[in-house]
Write a structure and sequence with these properties.
This protein has about 290 residues and is of the alpha+beta class. The protein contains twelve helices and six strands. Helix content is about 60%, strand content about 10%. It has a four-stranded antiparallel sheet with strand order 3-4-5-6. A two-stranded parallel ribbon has the order 1-2.
C-alpha cells in the first residue's frame, strides 16, 4: 500500500493504514507507523474522531502514537505561555497541567466550572457590609456551601493536585485549593496571590487596609502573621520574612509541577516523572531568563 500526502489522506484510508500496520511484518510496520505518526501529529484529535470510543481497544501502537503526539503538542503549548511578555497566565498553565492528566479536557470545560463557582460566590458576597463580612461570605461559599476541602489526611496524591480533578471531587491539597481560591477571587476583581510556607500554601489578598491571609486548607480561615510564625517554628524552621512574599504565577506553577513530580517519582512512574520534569525545566528556564 502506497501512502499519499498525510494532509490529503481520506478517513477510510487512515483506517486502512491502521489495519495494514497491525498485519504487516515488523520492518514494514515501523515505516508505516512513521506515516501514521505524521498524520496524528498534525491533528491528534482526528484519530479520536475516526475510532471514537474504541480508541482504548484499538491496536496498542495507535494509542501510543496518539499519546506521544498529544504530549509533544501539549509541551509546545506549555512552553509557549512562557514566551509571552510578562507573567504567564496562571489559569492557562493550570489547565495545560490538568490536560497532561486528562488529554481530552477542553478549555471551556475547565474555565466553565471556575466561572460557575465565581458566579455563585459573587451572589453570596454582594450584600456584605465590610471586609470581614466579605471574606467570611467568600470562604463560606467555596468551602461550607460548595463543599471544597482538604484531601483526606495521609492520602495526598496527584488527583488532589490537578485542578480539573479537584473541581470534580472537591478535594485538594492546600496548593490546589489556594490556586482555585485565587482564580475565583480574580474573577471578582480581588488581587490575590499564593503564599508558600514550608509544608503549606495559603492565600494573601491585597485590600485597601493591607494584606489579609486566608488558609483554604482550613476552610478559608483568616490567619495572622503570628499564626504563620508559630506554624513555621513548630516545624523547627527559622522564620524568614520572605516567607510571606506573594508567590507569582510562575512560582505557583513550578510548585504544582514539583508536587506532581514528587508523587509520580515516589510511585515509580518514570515516564510521567520525566515528562513533568521537562515542563518544570521550561518554568525554571523562564526564571533564569528574567534574572539575566
Amino acid at each position: 500500500m502506497s501512502v499519499r500526502n498525510p494532509k490529503k489522506l481520506p478517513d477510510n484510508e487512515i483506517k486502512a493504514l491502521i489495519a495494514l500496520i497491525a498485519n504487516e511484518d515488523t520492518l514494514n510496520a515501523e515505516s508505516l507507523k512513521t506515516k501514521l505518526a505524521e498524520i496524528v501529529r498534525r491533528d491528534p484529535e482526528r484519530i479520536d474522531t475516526l475510532i471514537g470510543e474504541n480508541l482504548n481497544s484499538a491496536p496498542g501502537f495507535v494509542e501510543q502514537i496518539v499519546a506521544c503526539a498529544r504530549r509533544n503538542m501539549l509541551s509546545a503549548m506549555f512552553e509557549n505561555i512562557f514566551k509571552r511578555n510578562g507573567e504567564p497566565d496562571f489559569e492557562e498553565g493550570l489547565f495545560l497541567i490538568s490536560k497532561f492528566e486528562n488529554p481530552t479536557l477542553s478549555l471551556s470545560e475547565f474555565t466553565g466550572k471556575i466561572d460557575a463557582l465565581a458566579d455563585l460566590t459573587s451572589k453570596r458576597v454582594k450584600d456584605t457590609k465590610d471586609l470581614t463580612g466579605f471574606l467570611s461570605a467568600f470562604s463560606a461559599s467555596l468551602f461550607a456551601e460548595q463543599g471544597f476541602s482538604i484531601h483526606p489526611e495521609g492520602q495526598a496524591a496527584p488527583e488532589y493536585i490537578y485542578l480539573s480533578r479537584v473541581l470534580e471531587t472537591k478535594r485538594g491539597t492546600t496548593l490546589a485549593l489556594s490556586s482555585l481560591f485565587i482564580l475565583v477571587a480574580e474573577r471578582l476583581g480581588i488581587p490575590s496571590y499564593g503564599t508558600h510556607l514550608p509544608g503549606m500554601v495559603f492565600v494573601q489578598l491585597h485590600t485597601p487596609t493591607g494584606r489579609v491571609f486566608l488558609a483554604p486548607g482550613m476552610q478559608g480561615k483568616i490567619i495572622r502573621k503570628q499564626d504563620c510564625l508559630n506554624y513555621v517554628r513548630s516545624r523547627m524552621i527559622a522564620w524568614e520574612d520572605f516567607f510571606l512574599d506573594p508567590a507569582d504565577s510562575t512560582y505557583m506553577l513550578a510548585l504544582t509541577l514539583g508536587n506532581l513530580i514528587y508523587f509520580y517519582n515516589k510511585g515509580g512512574d518514570e515516564e510521567k516523572t520525566a515528562h513533568l520534569k521537562e515542563y518544570l525545566g521550561v518554568v525554571q528556564s523562564s526564571y533564569k531568563t528574567e534574572n539575566d
